[in-house]
Amino acid sequence: MLDLRTVYQWLPNVTMFGSGAERFTGISTDSRTVRPGDLYIALRGDRFDGHAFIDAAIDAGAAAVLTEVFPERVRVPTLWVPDTRRALGALAGGWRRRFECPLIAVTGSNGKTTAKEMIAAILVAHLGAEAAFATRGNFNNDIGVPLTLLRLSDAHRMGVVEMGMNHPGEIAGLAAMTQPSVALVLNAQREHQEFMDGPEATARENGTVFGALAASGVAVFPGDDPCTPIWQALAQGQRVLNFGLVADEAALEADVQSTPDAGTPYLSVAAARDARPEHFRARLGEALVDIRLNIAGRHNVRNALAAAACTLALGVPVEAIVRGLAAFEPVSGRLRRTHTAQGVPLIDDTYNANPDSMRAAIDVLADQPAPRLMVMGDMGETGAQAEAFHREVGEYAVSRAIEQVWAVGKDMKAAAQAGGVQYWETVEALLAEHPQAPAGIASILVKGSRFMKMERVVRAWAETASPQGEH
Description:
By secondary structure, the chain is α/β, with parallel strands linked by helices. Helix content is 30%, strand content 21%.
């Protein structure tokens, strides 16, 4: 429970209409879900303006309102600010400062939600579900991160917060309000190319998360990535923990660095380059362990190593890390296994896509039993390179000897230039021709950007089939 005066002190450029003694018990940004006693925050979105629903929120029991529109009529105590989105972030930052709970910040191009869920599973294994705090779903933007932080309570002992971006300057603000003890950059790949000038720019943007670390904080990033020098420079003055792949299992026996000097890896987390997620050997600091994952894709070995590195940095025992990774279940739309109505294994990777994650998905399918079918939807935010990127993934699928490659969407027409790739302009056109999965296929993978809603293909072909765990 907070009083209005406390919030007033946290917010810049705010005018208060009320005594300040008024108290509220929760936060809501949606007038449809306001509970009696909530502070209603009116946000402007692409489709709706929350200011239009202030009266509805008050009628539903809102005890106070945060608005950027001058209140001509004050029905309840009100805070008036120039920008309610910024005010939400400031409010979340003030709330976060009330708790000493160490938080792990997760950034990167691909795999953020998977790595976050792996970290959460480890924290649950170590602390129990009530004491482990985590972002729900992919609430990782300038609204989702504040709403996540506002769920913090005295019951939480460790937590993980996912942070996403698509424009320069966003990560630093999210990190500042989160105040992480450990900051992770998973990777830097070709995402948001309409707004980011290549992987190096993406690496620098995500690496700004290290600037929010306290002196005792730990920066975690790959030690074997082309962008490693960028992150090393951004982590100057911080303790560093690297993760990555080594030549083979024999290399895991190599001496472990244990120098605590700022900017030097004081521990490392590694697995062999040919490690498969079903079962692999890893070095977690000074311990050699066997790890099993319930998810497809060799790139998820890296996600697991990153999760292990972050939790190791917080002092989580190795035994809990191994148990947590074994208990992890993939999130819907992220390499989640299901079956068609005819019983054919289908991998649902429909949450999102960019050129590098599409190539990784093709690699996953290439490891599955043949004959295989890859269904690829358009990749968004590829900017001026859209045609080249879509042609690239089509050619890559063919080069990996995927027996059938189906391309869907306006930009995917470029992928169809690769020999043997079939093309449909829309998902509706594909499903009109193939309402069920085609016969004679042993493995299917479906992937595309969020706006393509490629899960429609998965639903149509899976029908009543239930998701199955990885084996």
